[in-house]
Amino acid sequence: MSAIAIQDFYKDLLKDACPEITNFLNENIGKEIGNFNIFDIGEMYKSAKQRPKMPYNRRAYYKVSLIRGRNKVEYAGKTLEVKKFGVLFASPKVPYYYTPLDEDQAGYFCVFTPDFMSKSNIGTDIDYLPIFSAESDFVFEISEKEYEAARAIFQRMQVELSSDYTFKYDLLRNQLMELIHFGQKLKPIPVSDTTKTAASRTSAIFIELLESQFPLENLQQSLQLKVPVDYANALGVHVNHLNRVLKESTGRTTGEIIRGRIFQEAKTLLNQTHWNISEIAFTLGFDELSSFSHFFKKLSGVSPNVYRSNLLV
Predict the structure, then answer these.
(1) For residue 72, what are the β-bridge partners?
(2) 125 with 114: CB under 8 angstroms?
(3) pLDDT tens digits along 228-264
(4) Which residue, 14, 27, 34, 129, is most buried by CB atoms nearer than 10 A?
(5) Which of 163, 137, 23 is nearest to 82 (CA)?
(6) Averaged pLDDT, 119-147
(7) Which domains does the chain have, with CATH numbers?
(8) Residues 11, 12, 18: CA angle, nearest 5 degrees
């Protein structure tokens, strides 16, 4: 699953309404201020020709949404429904799907890139904040009073964003942090053993990385992370540390988990596609058909061809 960049977000949102947006983004994304913007959900919903959709995908930016209206949010195997008022905190690590369930939609959302926060006192990585951690809830139902409190923060940010104040981005970072702390206070995360917390976060992010590569939907896709060391490098940990953490939390080694997920996808592709065995082997990261056949037979007891033939009986 490729990440949707902030440029793609604006292009999809604005369509042809603002053709100069591409040049603007190419010139400004990556500059020291990063990117930050606010949108009025009610106004967007009224002007949309059809109901806005947020596809299930991984985004390369952060998003905080204040919601008024019935909405469904799907992420990490969970489905949550906001019945009236809610607030959502999305990070680049977690793909999600967002669906409005009625026509009465209002609120605000802001989007920002990681480098926007790099000038704040928390540095470039805001994932250490509980609201963006792997253990955090993703969306919260809130009261009308809480909705109005968060709405006031968004409105202040909206006014500031339009101002010509020289230090407005510093002020916007502070207001954004106020909004983040508002979310964290909704359901405080209890203080726990830091070692266990770090280990569980590593396990959760490993699973997210693994699952982000599936499903394989076309022959142009192929696995990029294939072996334990690939995941260890992506997580910035030693491969032995990753193996120990996963063994303690799941009872299986890193290699066993990866092989099990590849085997599961192999069976799905053999069952649900017309791709030939060589094509399936390639998308699953095997350089040789014989290697894939050996891998599959070791785990299933039969070759891929026999497995597929038995499905047709």
Answers:
(1) 81, 99
(2) yes
(3) 999 988 887 899 999 999 998 889 999 999 999 999 9
(4) 34
(5) 137
(6) 72
(7) 3-186 (2.60.120.280), 194-312 (1.10.10.60)
(8) 45
